[in-house]
Amino acid sequence: MNKQLWSKAWPHMAAILFFIVISYVYFSPVIDGKVVVGHDNQTWAGMSKETTDFNGSHDSPTLWTNSMFGGMPTYQIAMDSPSTAVSFIYSFFTNFPRPVFYLILYLIGFYILLLSLRVNPWLSALGAIGFAFASYNFIIIVAGHSSKAITLAYMAPVIGSVVMSYRSNRWLGAILTAIFLALGIKSGHIQIVYYVMMLLGVFIVSELIYAILEKQIKSFLITSAGLLGAAIIAMGINATTLITTYEYGKYSMRGQSSDTAHSAQKSNGGLEKDYITQWSYGVGETMTLLMPDFYGGSSIGTLDENSNTGKKLSSLGADATQIMSTQKWPLYWGSQPSTSGPVYIGAIICFLFVLGLFLVDGKYKWWLLAGTVLSIMLAWGKNFGILTNFFIDYVPYYNKFRTVAMILIIAGYTMPIMAILALQALIKNNIDKAKLTKSLYWAAGITGGLCLLFWLIPSLAGNFVSPEDAQFSGDYSFLKTTLPLDRQAIMKADALRSLIFIVLAAGAIWVYAKNKLKAAHLYLIFAVLFIADMYPVAKRYLNDDNFVSKQTAQATKPTQADKFILQDKSDYRVLNLAVSPFNDASTSYFHKSIGGYHGAKLRSYQDLIDVQLIPEMQAISNVFQHAKTLTDVQAPLAKLSVLNMLNMKYLIYNPEAMPITNPYANGTQWFVKKIIPVENNSEALRKVGQIDTKNEALVEKAVATSLPATFAKDTTATITLKKYEPNDLVYSYKSNSDQVAIFSEIYYDKGWTAYVNGAQVPYFKANYLLRGIALKPGQYDVEFKFDPPSYSTGNTISYASSILLVLIVLGGGFFAWRRNTKDPKEAGKE
C-alpha cells in the first residue's frame, strides 16, 4: 500500500476499529456468552416457532402458519426470502454477536452518512458516537425491536448517499443509495424506511427550490431520475417482501376496511386514529431531547434509600435499603400509556444543533431544521391533532403505522448532522469572530438557559403526578406525595447535568475560538464529552442487568397445562385465558392458538374477535365464577359456536393446572346438513354466533345458489385429515352422495388453492372466515396448498434486480478505473 493510499485509509480503519472496541466495551457481557432477551424477541420466538421448525427440516419454506389467529401468512413473521446482491453485506455484520453488531452498525452507518456530506473522518467518527449513543437506539434493543435497530442503522447512509448524489457525485450517490436502501428495506422495518423517505422528501423539495433559484433544473432532474432508478432497483431487490406485504396488507388491519358493519374504518383504509396515536409524545415531553429524564424516565424505574420515598419508608421503620434495591416504581408521568425510556438526543448535540442554525450554510440548515421540526410536531400525535389528522387523512400510507412518537427518529438523524456540520464550520476557521461569539452566546443561552430555568423552577414542567399514583391507598397513600417529589428531583438532577455539559462544550469552543486549542484537541475534548454525556444515559436503559445466559434465554419451558395438551397428537387449537389471548404469542410456541400477537393480523379475524370471540370468552369467565364441577364447566361449552368452529379443543385457565378439554370442538373438518344464505360479510359476522356451526353453514347468496339444495343422508360419509403441513393439508374423503365440507381453516384466497385428486377445484368462504368446499360422491383426496403467486413473482423480480445492481456496480467501477488510468492529456479532452 503506497503512502498516499495509506494516508487516506488509516483514519477509516482506525475509526472502524474504535467502533468495534467501544461496542464490545459497552456490551462486555457478550464476551462471557450472555445475551439480551427483549420482550419482542420472546414474542417472535412464539409466533415463528412452527415456521422455523418447518423451514429447518424442509427444502421449500412455508409461507403460512397455523400457530396464531387460526392461521395467517408468515410474511411479517419469518418469511424466507431469496439471497440477493446485498445479502452478503447483511450477513457479514451478523457474525458479530447480538447486540454488539447493532451498535457497530449504528456507528458505521452514521459515519458513512457524514463522510458522504464531505465531513472529515475525525468529525465523522465523533458524529457517529453522538448519533449511536442516543437513548432510543438502546431502548429498542432492550425491547427486542431487532429489525427496527438494523433498519435505523442502514438508513443513515441512505440519507448521506442521496445528499451526495445532489451535492457532489451524482452517480456514485445513486449507486450507494441503491445498495443501502436495499439493505434498509431488507432489514424489515418499513415504518422506519417510510419516515426516512419523508425526511428525504423535505430535502429534495429544498433541492428543487435551490435548483430553481440557481437555474439548475436540468441537473436536478437528471439526479432525481438517477435516484428514482436507484430506489426502483432497491425495491426490486426486496420485491418478494414488498409484493407479498402489499398484497396481504389489503386484507390486514392496516388495509381497507372490510365490508362488515362493525369495521370502524370506512374511509381510505389503514389503522384507526386512536390506535395510531395511542403513543403520542407530550408537547412538554419534547424536553427529554435535551434533559433525559425530564418526565421521570421509564414507566418502571428504581429509586434509592436517599430518595423521598426511601426516606419515608425508613421513617416508618421499614428496611428502605432492601425495599429500594428490589422494588420498581412508576416514575414516568407523561401522557403515553407506558414507556421504556425517553428519546434523549444529547445535551451537547442539542446545543450544537442550535449553534448550527447560526453557522451552517443554508443549503443544509433549512432542510435539517424543517425535518427536525416536522418530526417533533408529528411525534406529538393527538396532542397536535390538526397536523396529525391531516397526515393520517391525506398523506399516502401514513395511516398504516402506529406509535407516532417513533417519528422522532428523524430528529435523531437531523440533529446530530447539524451538530457536526456546526463543528465543521467552526473548524474551517472562515467564520467572523464576532459572529461566532454572538452565535455561541445565543446557542448556549437558549439550551443552557432552558436547563437552568427548569433546575431553578421545576414546577414549570408540571405537577409531576402520574395517573399510576391513583392506585396507592391505605398504608401506601404516602406514595402520592413522595413519588412526585422524587420525579421532581430526577428532573432537576438531569437539568443540572445537561447544563454542565452545555457549559463545558461551549467553553471548549470559546477556548478554541481564542486560538488556544488545536483542532485535534477539540476533537478529543468533544469525543470525551459526547461519551460522558450519552454513554451513562444509555446505560440507564440497557446495562449488564439486561443480560442473561444463553441457556436461560433459550429455555422456553412448557407449563403443566402445556405438557398435558402436548400428549394429544391430533390437530386442535388452544385458547389460553391465563394470558391476554390476543396480545401474547407464548401459547403459539407449543400449540396452534386461537389468539396470538401481531400488529397486522387479518382484519376479518380482528372483527371476529371484537364481535364474537370476546363475548364467548366473557361467557366462559361467567361459567368459571359459578361452576363447581368439571361438568358445570364443560356443558356450556356446547354453546360456543364460534370457538368450536375454530376447533378450540383445550382451554387453559391456569398454566400450572390441568386444562379444560372441550368435547364440543368441531374438529379440523366436518360435513354440514344445511346451507344458510347471507347477503354479505356483515350479516355473516353477525349471525355466525347464532347458528349451530357443526351442522349449519353461512354462505353468501352468490355462492349458495351453486350448492346442493339438499343433502342425501349418508351415514357412512367420512372426511379426515390425512396429512398436515402448515402450507399443505390433505384430507381423505369418502361419500356416496353430495356433501359440503367445512374446514376450521382461515379463508385466504391469495395463495390457498384446493385440489381433488390433483385437479384444481373451487372453494368458498363459509361462516364468515372459514373454508368450505362442495364435494361429489366418491372416494378421493382433497388438498389445500398455499403457494401464492406473489411470492414467486417477487423472487423473479428480486433476482433480476440483483443482477442489474451487480452489473451497474461493475460498470461504474470499470469506468472509474478507466478514468483514473487514462493519460492526463486524454482525460482532459473529456
Automatic annotation (TrEMBL):
Keywords tagged on the record: Membrane, Transmembrane, Transmembrane helix
DNA-binding keyword on record: no
Stored InterPro entries: Uncharacterised_YfhO
Top-level taxon of origin: Bacteria
Keyword Membrane set for record: yes
Residue ranges of the TM segments: 9-27, 100-117, 122-143, 149-166, 171-186, 192-213, 220-243, 341-360, 367-392, 404-427, 439-457, 495-513, 520-538, 797-817
Protein name: Membrane protein YfhO
